[in-house]
Amino acid sequence: MGIKRKTVWGMLLVLLLGQIVSFSVAISSFASSLIANLGVDAPLTQLFFAYLLLTIVYVPIVLRRREKLQISWYWYLALAFTDVQGNYLVVKAYQYSYITSVTFLNCFTLVWVIVLTRYTLGTRYSLWQFVGTGVCVAGLALALLSDANSPDEDLGKIPLLGDALVIAGTVCYALNNVGQEYCVKNKDRVEVVAMIGLFGLLVSVVQIFLFERKSLEAVTWPSMMISLFAGYAAGNFTFCSVTPFVLKMSGSTLFNLSLLTSGMWAAAIQILFYHQQVQPTDKLDVLYGIHSCGHWVNHLLVE
């Protein structure tokens, strides 16, 4: 009885942490969307502040230990590089698409994670898990079809280009998630977050210097813009801080299942904080998020 109760509490803790991660994704998504709507195209600069915050908080903890890194620095560089590229592509997508499509298609990471964990970590999945993934893919295909028929190119948006950037970003996210899962299950979680922050900071600085200097010079910094960049950094910081715990307790697949509810949180933020009208497609996103909660809990019980 005690073991069963412990299992239930562990499941509820994973569920809670997963939704904290999902909510942080929604916060970052809204900040990025509003920054793009204000005409600012500086995704690498957004990432710079997020990695800077991670570095300031976690690197001193690692230095205070005065111990050698448990994983070679070049593996952390590889993880940070995939993280920067994935974040860059997804944030860039807001220049061409809308928060609903970007948040929804971001769930494509689940597909790549299942493939990678199956062939790299040897994770086994049941037939019903593959069927559930197939349903998710069908939903993503409908989202792509909807964007393909969108007339919004006249408004300066190119939804299909935004969708392509998001899907490319999900490949990087999947590589990063699986790499992080291996690291946090075998090594120190704080070291992983600290090194991803530090090397992510270095990679983003180099890429800003190479690709974003001109667009950054054109940015003005009123208080609202500073608040949006700070909001994105705070959301990303929460995401990176909590993610290792979810990966260690549940793995990459269930971690990405938890992110399926981010569309629901994004719609809630849109209503409560920005007092914006929710479109029919956003209502579908809310229903999809609620369904995903039940589907995720079902996976936890099966596991």
Quick structural gist:
The protein is built from 12 helices and no strands.
Oligomer: single chain
Shape call: globular
Helix % is over 70%
Number of strands: 0
Provide the succession of SSEs.
Answer: HHHHHHHHHHHH
Counting helices, strands and paired strands, the structural category is mainly alpha
Main beta sheet: strand number and arrangement? none
CA-to-CA gap between the ends?
19 Å
Low-confidence stretches: 279-303
Radius of gyration from CA coordinates = 19 Å
Strand content: under 5%
Q: Tally the helices.
A: 12
Overall pLDDT: 77
List descriptors.
single chain, mainly alpha, 82% helix, disordered C terminus
How would you portray this structure in words?
The chain has 12 helices and no strands. The chain has 303 residues and is mostly helical. The protein starts with a helix and ends with a helix. It has helices at residues 2-37, 43-65, 73-93, 99-105, 109-121, 127-148, 159-186, 189-217, 223-250, 252-258, 262-272, 280-302. The model is unreliable at 279-303 (pLDDT under 50). The chain crosses the membrane at residues 12-36, 42-61, 73-90, 96-115, 127-146, 158-178, 190-211, 223-247, 254-274. Belongs to the SLC35F solute transporter family. Keywords: Membrane, Transmembrane, Transmembrane helix, Transport.
Helix-strand layout with pairing:
Elements: H1 2-37, H2 43-65, H3 73-93, H4 99-105, H5 109-121, H6 127-148, H7 159-186, H8 189-217, H9 223-250, H10 252-258, H11 262-272, H12 280-302
Helix pairs in contact: 1-9, 1-11, 2-8, 2-9, 3-7, 3-8, 4-11, 5-7, 5-10, 7-9, 8-9, 9-10, 11-12
